[in-house]
Amino acid sequence: MLNIHNPADWPKMKNYYRANDMLNLLTYFPKLSPVRDLTIVESIEEFENKKSYFASFSQNRVDTLKGHHPINNIENSSNPKEFLNTLMQVKAQDPSGVLILFNLDCPPSARYERYAGIAVGIDLGLRVVIDAVSQGFDGREVSKSICTHERYLIPWTDLRKVSITNFKEYQTYQITDEEYLKTREERIKFLTSIGLNPQIFTKYIPIKYQPIPDFIWLDILQNLIKKLDRNEEILREKGFTSFAISGHTEGKRFAPWQMYDKSRFF
User: Going edge to edge, which strands form the sheet with 117-123?
Assistant: First the structure.
């Protein structure tokens, strides 16, 4: 077991794709990340020996060592009773695969209850590009380039002057109602495929497109965009010249889990 509260474990944890991304965000934008108690389970035996401890976690992600093919086709579960089964699926694909467990600093929402899924792409000193999906969707769509509902482009020179009053001036794309309905249908198919009840979740996904509320954008401007300009030199020194921060909202805040650069991929 590797745990964030043990400094000696950090170098080992950073050898894993998603764990490294989560540690990056906690390091450079600690107030933005809701992740707490990050822990890596390395084996089925380890899980079975500490089952009661691992049951205290509310969230999970699957991961493997850098250099291995990323594990992308196993859906995560917020049910601790499913954690062992998820780990067994991981090991069947890649013996080096692991299970990441963690808690959040806020009550976790169902994946259809969120206001938005958002990916913020940063080219240091050049621009910030924001891709987002709206109510009833989450970070899956934008992180996997499945669809986008709204897009914004902010030149780096405008970081200090962008505000909630002029934010919409930076919008370069908003989905049409016709195209939105297609993404809604695909979202319903996906949520149904992972065992969720359409009678419960469809009411959370508007039939007519609803733009992402201003209070979400205000949170992103205050807690991410404005801090980019102040932290430019620190990020550049650490090699973060082109990177992304992505995730979904929890309540009225943007609560991403990961920060990654090109080393995240082959």
Answer: 171-174, 150-155, 127-133, 117-123, 242-250, 253-261
Please state, as a whole number, how many other Cβ atoms lie within 10 Å of the Cβ of residue 64: 20
Rounded Cα–Cα distance for residues 106 and 59 (Å): 12
The closest of 129, 134, 140, 122 to 231, measured between CA atoms, is 122
End-to-end CA distance of the chain: 26
Identify which of 6, 28, 64 has the alpha carbon closest to the alpha carbon of residue 260: 28
Write the CA distances from 208 to 36, 60, 177, 181, 204, integer angstroms.
36, 32, 6, 8, 12
pTM of the full structure: 0.89
Q: pLDDT class for 264, splitting at 50, 70, 90? A: low
**CA 152, CA 159: separation in Å to the nearest integer?**
13
- How far, in whole angstroms, is CA 190 from its chain's centroid? 18
Sign of CA dihedral 220, 224, 229, 235: negative
Q: Whole-angstrom Cα distance, residue 183 to residue 157?
A: 34
- In angstroms, the CA 56 to CA 80 distance is 8
